[in-house]
Amino acid sequence: MNRPIDPHKLVQAASPTGTTEGYMPGFGNDFETEALPGALPQGMNSPQKCNYGLYGEQLSGTAFTAHPPERTWTYRIRPSVKHSARYEKIDLPHWKSAPNVDPDVISLGQYRWDPVPYSEEKLTWLTGMRTMTTAGDVNTQVGMATHVYLVTESMQDEYFYSADSELLVVPQEGRLRFATELGIIDLEPKEIAILPRGLVYRVEVLEGPARGFVCENYGQKFELPARGPIGANAMANPRDFKAPVAAFEDRETPSTLTIKWCGQFHQTKIGQSPLDVVAWHGNYAPYKYDLRAYCPVGAILFDHPDPSIFTVLTAPSGVPGTANIDFVLFRERWMVAENTFRPPWYHKNIMSELMGNIYGQYDAKPQGFVPGGMSLHNMMLPHGPDKNAFEGASNSNLGPEKLENTMSFMFETRFPQHLTAFAAKEAPLQDDYIDCWSDIEKKFDGTPGTK
Asked: What is the b/e burial string over 278-305, where b = at least 16 CB atoms within 10 angstroms of the residue's CB?
């Protein structure tokens, strides 16, 4: 028997026993959740008639024959075809997709930006997205883009999904709510969220203005990295990822749905909220993760391992051992290595590295890399500590030292990252960043044993 539903209130399932309120733990789990009792069929996916007059529908995140397949069965008030009508193209001029090679922009270089500032303009999740770099090709589903988001206003009867990509969201300030088809994710700094390809959602401001970073992944979805000899524990543990419980709206109100498809944006008008999934089960879902739960590993005797040991999530490519994207976290940790230069060493890398500062001070660049700022060191371009960081690390007393008040991250990709016109001409680029290495001195004098 149907129970009365307030059409203006989002109805959410109770959390399973022992879980965080509103979420279910685990990475890649096969979840099941219902916002109304008996809404979820048992023992089969597609009964002749679903309870409450719901429609059964499958959302597939992989090909049917992929192993393992990723899909979620939803039981909704209307099938998605009722949330789709004739489309018209719209322009979101600051959200770019690869390939986006501007002939007037030089992407070859070492770049750093101050935080992208807010303006007087009211901005939603869609209008406030500012693309900084693109890589690969959205049409062949390889590569990525990086964005900064500036959000001051909630989406009002507006909804969105990307057919191109999954989005990794890294807040830097402010709090957002992602009201999705499969449930609610509240997100704040020091957390991240993954929004799968094809998932419909609305973004609301809980505490603003809100600013953060987005990695748009065109390729295979993010997964936990192979741990190798590290073993079963540490790094990002599966139990710390949280998927939302079912929540739905039954609202008859004129609404707008925007879709990103092959780098273009299309809009359709519908007569109701599309967030009408009353129950679901499957392994294709959004989730959040608290970066403070990440357990770093490192050298406990000598030398400085590769930054790959700090990988939180990786999106594989077709080349074994070479990622389409790695999401790498540099958080508080102890440094204890003996007779070792502890900050990142100077290097050139086949991967291109875009870094963002969530809060605090980064050890290799103690000056100028501020919270909300970004840097880009493109493939095969040298980079490393500035003079002050080098001299300090070369001459410090190497006792145990805890790096505190620090949380930065890296979006690393096997593709060269091309700057957008916004990144090159409008974003607050630090024109003098390249000079941070200019005062590094020659120390070689040909004398054996000189240090």
From this structure: bbbbbbbbbbbbebeebeeeeeeeeebe
Average pLDDT, 10 consecutive residues per value, the chain (451 residues): 47 59 93 97 96 97 89 97 96 96 92 95 98 97 97 97 98 98 98 98 97 97 93 94 97 97 97 98 98 95 90 92 94 93 88 95 78 95 88 91 94 95 96 90 82 66
As a whole number of angstroms, the distance between CA 184 and CA 181 comes to 8
Q: Are strands 71-76 and 55-60 parallel, antiparallel or unpaired?
A: antiparallel
Specify whether the CB–CB gap between 391 and 328 falls below 8 A.
no
Q: How many CB atoms lie within 10 A of CB 405?
A: 8
Whole-structure pTM over 0.90, yes or no? yes
Q: How far is CA 288 from each of CA 16, 20, 154, 177, 241, rounded to the nearest angstrom?
A: 17, 12, 20, 11, 6
Phi, psi of 52 (to 5 degrees): 65, 10
Extents of the domains making up the chain? 292-435
| CATH 2.60.120.10 for domain 292-435 | yes
Q: Is 423 helix (H, G, I), strand (E, B) or coil?
A: helix
Amino acid present at 88: E
DSSP assignment of 141-161: TEEEEEEEEEE-S--SSEEEE
How are beta strands 264-270 and 255-261 bridged, if at all? antiparallel
Q: Is the dihedral of CA 35, 38, 42, 47 positive or negative?
A: negative
User: 313 pairs with which residues across the strands?
Assistant: 327
CB 287 within 8 A of CB 221: no
Angle (nearest 5°) at CA 363 between 359 and 364: 120
Distance between CA atoms of residues 261 and 139, nearest Å:
9
| Cα 139 to Cα 137: distance, rounded to the nearest angstrom | 5
| CA pair distance 275, 269, nearest whole angstrom | 15
Which are the catalytic amino acids? 304
Give the pairing type, strands 11-12 and 352-360: unpaired
- Helix (H) or strand (E) holding 322, with range, is none
pLDDT given at position 5? 44
Q: Which of 389, 172, 184, 410 is nearest to 311 (CA)?
A: 410
Q: Measuring CA to CA, which residue among 222, 204, 233, 205 is closest to residue 284?
A: 222
Nearest to 149 by CA among 214, 202, 77: 214
CB atoms within 10 A of CB 370: 17
